[in-house]
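Example A, followed by Example B.
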Amino acid sequence: MASTGGRPDPDEARAALAGIQQVQRAVRDTPWPTWLYPTNALLLGAMTLTFLLEQHRTAAFLAVALVVAAVNLVAGYRMGAPWALPTSRLFLAAVAAAGACVVAALVLADLTRSSWPVLVLAVAATALYSAGAVAHRRSTGPVGRAGTSRPGARGASRTGRRDR
């Protein structure tokens, strides 16, 4: 690795690291496309419902899981941050709770012949993810017409249009 000069002093190093952390946070707080939230919520519900199938349950589950991964990866690449996890703790907790509903549906589908617990868990997974999506969207702000993430952000007016 080539060096660009002498060794930085501790203050310069701290400032450089703070700048990196600020950029990483900005990438993680980038608003997602609005269509991605309901798509993910419905796919989580569908993933949960695959446990009601009598045959090919695992194949159906894996197929829906691959669709979830593909949709999120494509959306992430289009945003320029395919592997970035949001910083919203409420969103991350809601996603974990929705995932727990999916796992609970897997267990309950094997323990009971009744389908209503899986249906309730599918609705819960969808609702939990949706609630987390609202929290995530509010934490990142709406995307304005000029592509700015928040009204009043640098280069944007309160109307969401670029200042001239």
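Example B, a separate protein, is given below in the same form.
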Amino acid sequence: MSDRQLRTQHADVVARNREQRLATMAEAQRQADQRRERAASLQAGRDAGDEM
């Protein structure tokens, strides 16, 4: 492989890794948001039960 081909291949791998990392971070954030919403909902239900 020529140096140019190696650099191009390396740039492609770096770009794919970055895309995958960003997708993983976005999914982790989505899951964390869901957990927070669920916890808030459960707490609201407990608070409503305490008022009765």
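On Example B: The helical segments are 3-51.
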